[in-house]
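Lecture notes, part 5. Sequence design as translation. It can be helpful to think of inverse folding as translation between two languages: the language of shapes and the language of residues. The source text, in structure tokens, appears below.
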């Protein structure tokens, strides 16, 4: 996959490239858990986002862009009695998730996160987690509308996502970490850097925190707020939380 460098916003002209992201993940599925395992705080932060959903213990929870199931594991650990559905568009990533014994009770679905209903996933859900997903979908506004419709009234949504556009310091730190740790780590583990270069660029282009919060309010969500991570991810990775009224 060749990801050319552009400077348009997430909702802009990069749609065709973003549509190729799931097939790029097929190529790194085998080494994804190895590289994320070297990232301090990765699983702990997913768990924080899952807990911040404050979903009912026996609720129905959707993990969108579930990948190899690391975010799904966070949901299952936080809500062991919940009914959990995971969706991803990469067969390779899903195959890894399906093989994990801890996720045996999860229903995994192959499909596009922009329109989960088209993939056969029907609501209502008590909560939806989308970790490192909204930045990658070609039509984020259509996706957000569809997620609103999938939630029951009062249901909660968490986008666990990078956002650095509004602070020069965190933007600089992100680019240092991506260039000196993540991209070389991708080369060492997956023998490829394309998707990790795309990661650096797509994070740089993604909405700032206030802009993304405004985007969620414009789609009808209430109680929109952002909670932080710790470690090097502070100010870089966030839980964007919202509730359907
Ligand atoms: C960085 S991984 C995150 C996986 C998991 N949520 C985690 O936290 O480890 C991003 C995932 O989003 C998936 N993805 C990207 N675009 C997608 C789309 N339009 N529909 C469904 N999945 C998509 C990729 O296949 C990949 O598995």
């Amino acid at each position: 996959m060749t990801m050319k460098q552009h400077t348009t916003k997430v909702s802009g002209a990069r749609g065709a490239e973003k549509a190729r992201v799931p097939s790029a993940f097929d190529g790194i599925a085998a080494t994804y858990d190895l590289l994320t395992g070297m990232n301090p705080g990765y699983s702990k932060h997913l768990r924080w986002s899952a807990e911040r959903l404050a979903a009912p213990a026996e609720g129905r929870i959707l993990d969108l862009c579930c990948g190899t199931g690391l975010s799904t594991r966070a949901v299952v650990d936080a809500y062991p009695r919940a009914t959990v559905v995971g969706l991803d568009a990469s067969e390779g990533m899903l195959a890894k998730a399906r093989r994990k014994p801890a996720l045996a009770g999860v229903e995994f679905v192959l499909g596009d996160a922009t329109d989960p209903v088209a993939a056969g996933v029907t609501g209502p859900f008590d909560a939806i987690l989308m970790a490192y997903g909204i930045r990658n979908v070609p039509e984020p506004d259509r996706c957000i509308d569809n997620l609103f419709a999938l939630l029951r009234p009062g249901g909660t949504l968490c986008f666990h996502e990078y956002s650095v556009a509004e602070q020069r310091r965190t933007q600089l730190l992100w680019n240092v970490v991506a260039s000196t740790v993540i991209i070389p780590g991708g080369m060492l583990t997956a023998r490829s850097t394309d998707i990790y270069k795309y990661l650096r660029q797509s994070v740089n282009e993604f909405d700032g925190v206030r802009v993304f919060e405004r985007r969620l309010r414009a789609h009808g969500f209430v109680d929109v707020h952002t909670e932080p991570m710790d470690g090097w991810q502070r100010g870089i990775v966030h839980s964007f939380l919202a509730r359907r009224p």
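The translated text above is only one of many valid answers, since several sequences can fold into similar shapes. The radius of gyration is 16 Å.
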